[in-house]
Structure formats: C-alpha cells, structure tokens
Sequence to fold (233 residues):
Amino acid sequence: MSQRYFVEKLNGVIDHQDAHHIIKVMRMKDQDEIIVCAKQACILASIEIHDKQVFYKEIKKLEYKSHFDVTIIQGLPKKNKMEFVSKYATVYGAASLYFCGMDRSIVKLENDGFKKERLTAIAKEAAELAHRSFVPEVLMFQSLKHIDLKQFDVVIVADEDEHRVEINTLLPLDIEKKYAVIIGPEGGISEQERKYFKSINAHFITLGHYILPTESASLSVLSFFMHQNHKLF
Fold:
C-alpha cells in the first residue's frame, strides 16, 4: 500500500520533513508511487527526486469516503495524555480535536501555540498511518466559554454520573449533522458544567460499567461512529 502524505495544496512539490522522509527514511526512487492529500482530496502519484525536493505527478484521483463529522472536546489532561488523544482520536476518525480547560483540569493551558503545533504533527502522522483523507484540526481553548457549542447539531456528554443512557440511543445518526463529544479531564466534569450542558440540551451518555481513563474515553464514542459509518458506506 502506498505511503500517504498531507500537503497544503496539490502543487506537485513535496519538501521539508516529508521530502526527507521519502528520500532518507523510505528510500524511495524515481517513479515510486505515493498518495498525496490536501483539503480532503487525495491522488495517487509517481515521484521524481531532485536533490532535497520531491516532485510528483498525478496518476489518478482517489475516491473520497464520507464520514460522520465528530469533534472531540477533551477536558485538558496532562501532556502525555494530550498526545495520546491526538494520535488515537485521529486514528478512530475524529474530524476535529478541541483541548479545553475545564473546572477539574489538573494542568493549565500554557504555551498553547507550541502545544498546538506538536499535537497537530502527531495527528498528521496518525492520519497518514490510518490512511485518512485529511488531518483533523487541533484547537486549544482556555475554557468552555470560548467554544461556540451552537455550531454543532448534537452535543454529547460522556458523564460518569449517567448510568442508564447508552450511546446507541442516538440512532439513527445523520451524516449531514455535526456532532460534538465532550470528555471531562482526569477529575471528570463538575456539577456547574453539568448544569451548563443540560441548559443547552446536550445528550448525556454512559460509556459502560467501568470508569475509563480520560485519554481513552473518546475512543469508545468514536468506535461507535466508526462502526455506524462502516455500515452506511
């Protein structure tokens, strides 16, 4: 299966780290084939290598596969857990990743520009490995009040205090809708946050009998959407 690379635009050139990866790590040669993606469009292409640059020529356009638009709003966890979420939520199909300070977040959002760059790089690598057609957008927020939840058609809250309502109550899903999934930090969501989510008619769900670690909780929800997506397409 051809190696996949994400670029800003399909202009026939790959440089910087991706070019280094093609030349030095993958040790590709002229006429080898790769997949190049930009703005949810992917092509199969053949390459030519000149010094430290890689040029590619389109062979054919690849089919775009529809998917559910799911944004993970992750209560700010510790650093290594943020990296876990960026990698595996991408593999499991998240459309966007919002890292947000919440009432019970243990750490505070600092150096958010550097963190965003680092987490985007992790998401990019994960998207390439998973053969996705785009890299999820990574955004950082100081608090929930900075996120416009009205942009989403359905807001889902994974709440450890909810014991009966499971995610399958959301069926049937609508491929045209935008979904947001809110995951609390290590300490869970606060009562004040719970009241706020109720005021906007969010859907509260349980993720099962056991309390999942914050960094892996989103994967339970994303795997549900992934399964439903597979059944539709």
User: Anything to note?
Assistant: Residues 214-232 form the longest helix (19 residues).
